Amino acid sequence: MYQVMKGMLSMASGNFLAIFTALSNVPPVSAFATFDTRNNHPVLDFDDTTDEEAIFLGVVPANYAGGGLTIDIYCSFTSATSNVCRWEAMIERMDVSSLDTDADSFASSQSAAVTAPGASGQIVKATITMTSGAQMDSLAAGESYRLKIRRDANATTGTDSVTGDAELHRVVIKET
């Protein structure tokens, strides 16, 4: 059993690095997603006319092998059953002795779109990939970080035509 577990920890690609739920959000001071529930499921509501954000705090596990990141955003929509929603993700590395926490220093955003399903209560997944290095703020094993998720309601990185709120259920980070 130990050998199997030891082998699983040494694998890189596909390793789960973090799972965040709506309850894990540490909202920014302004333009934040609002907490809500859908049939008693906690969600974060992201507006369709204003870019709103959620922030999640984490530490990269020791088994991280230095690859890129795959960020899966599981969401549904308050009422929409068609069109495209655009999500963005940004990482801020919180390295010891050099990050000034008085100012944000997130890496440039990476984005992906997801199409609303035929029923508003169905969950869909948007997948954002980041290559190792600058796209993920050169994050390394054992380091703290902040992950910012934003709905690009004003479509600066691509089309967002879903009307009504997008509901974030969870975010899963895996090593690519």
Outline the structure in words.
The chain has 1 helix and 10 strands; from the N terminus they run αββββββββββ. The protein is mainly β and 176 residues long. It has one helix spanning 2-10, and strands at 16-21, 34-38, 41-46, 52-59, 69-77, 84-94, 110-115, 124-130, 144-151, 166-175. 5% of the residues lie in helices and 43% in strands. Strand 2 (34-38) and strand 3 (41-46) form a beta hairpin. Mean pLDDT is 92; it is low at 1-11. It has a single domain (16-175), classed as Galactose-binding domain-like (Jelly Rolls, Sandwich), CATH 2.60.120. Strands 1, 2, 3, 5, 8 and 10 form a 6-stranded antiparallel beta sheet that branches.
How many structural units, i.e. domains? Answer: 1
- Give the beta-strand count: 10
Q: From the helix content, strand content and strand pairing, which structural class follows?
A: mainly beta
**Global morphology:** globular
* CATH level-3 fold name: Jelly Rolls
Percentage of β-strand residues: 35-45%
Helix content bin: under 10%
Please describe the biggest sheet, giving its number of strands, its sense, and whether it closes into a barrel: 6 strands, antiparallel
Oligomer: single chain
CATH class type: Mainly Beta
- Summarize the helix and strand pattern as letters: HEEEEEEEEEE
- Give the distance, in angstroms, between the N- and C-terminal Cα atoms: 26 Å
Number of helices: 1
Average pLDDT across residues? 92
CATH architecture: Sandwich
Spans of at least 5 consecutive residues whose pLDDT stays below 50 are 1-11
- CATH-level-4 superfamily name: Galactose-binding domain-like
